[in-house]
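Let's inspect one such protein example.
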Amino acid sequence: MKKILLNILIPCLFSGALSAQVSDLGIALFDTEDYQGQHVFITEDWDPGLSNIPFGIESIRVPKGWEIWVYQGEGFSGRHRALTSNWDGNGKHDWRWKNEIRSIRIITEYRPNPLLQALTSTKGVAVFTRTEYRGDHKFITSDWTSAEGCFSFGIESIRIPAQWEVWVYEGDNFTGRHMKLTEDWDGMGKNDWRWRDDIRSLRVIRSTIGLEPDVPARPSIQIYEHADRTGASFELTGEWSALGSDDFWNDRISSIVIPQGIEVHVFEHTGYRGKVKILKRDWRAKEPDHFWNDRISSIKVITRDYVMY
């Protein structure tokens, strides 16, 4: 539970729209339309039972290649909607969802990768009680047969993740007539109605679960106490926030060495709050950046391959 709470809710209280959408930080949830105002990032499924978000959701930034499902009910229940791109509550039909989102599932994450260049995580195959991917639904990540008594409903539509292949069968235990699926299937189709409520078992032939990309280690940045890259220093990969006013590095940073391909977000306050400055090359405190001299209290290091403008 502690890990979930830490990963799901990262408060980011500086106002204004994000100048860039960073998939490292996850899905950005905003309390006003047009991606403005207070916002938080989530990187795993969110439900009020796991962590509280202190505002109604009116717009969402979804990183490129990600898919999420938003629900009107807590516990991933009630009417739902799939999002694969940014959503703004000021749209013609989107206003109905403003402040009505009660839980969110992250279905698919995408991380650019030189080896796989593919989806690296997914919830699995989603089977629905109704056509057009509506109604109650469950996720399957391995072979299933109705003899196991897993579901209390008939299957009328199925969502298949990218690069997956499943075979559905008319009989229990993978017997009888079967159909191969490599993309979404909806019982509303001209010839698909014959399979509605007649699927009794499902075999996962190919999936992406367990494929962990060999992502190269992220280069680190070097932090210095003085503006001429002298004094005390330390190496940073990932992120850092001062533990408080007694932290040696709190309000003491005056220069940073940044390797090519790395983007650094520096924050005025601990916990990634207050004013923020984005750095894409070596930096030292001098005019017109004198404001930031001995003013940095938290930092995020981001691989620029993950930054979507």
The chain is about 0% helix and 40% strand. The first strand starts at residue 10 and ends at 12. The chain has three domains: 2-110, 119-206, 221-308.
